[in-house]
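EI: anyone free to look at a 136-residue chain?
SC: sure, send it
EI:
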Amino acid sequence: EEFIEMYDAEFATSEEDRAKQILTWEVTNVLEAGGDGKHPMNRKVILRVKLDALKGETGLSDEALEYIAEICGARFDAKRRQIKITCSRSVNREHNRQWCLKVLYDLIMEGNREFPSDSYRFTPEGPVEPGTAGAQ
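SC: here you go
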């Protein structure tokens, strides 16, 4: 119990830090007795993206965010204003994480393509100065 308290104290995040988080990853690790670790649930990756925080990071317009939510359909949670992207295509969990990120990048770029914004500053390599992201 003492170790758990020390662990929780070491890795605790404040409400302020949690509010700033844009991406939340969820993975499952199933340990089987005598298993080889290749349980199908071990490769599944879930990415949750907060739309409001995404707007602040990428500079997307409100119309672009609504367009992204519309594209996502049932994967968009209107109460929490977040998108859920899930992948279990590859046996390798890291490949599935990369696929989720690629889908997110494609959604961001599609949103800006349909509803361009002067404050848009997103590239897959990282944020850039507003107005220079489309000059690639």
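EI: The beta strands are 23-27, 45-50, 76-77, 82-87.
SC: 👍
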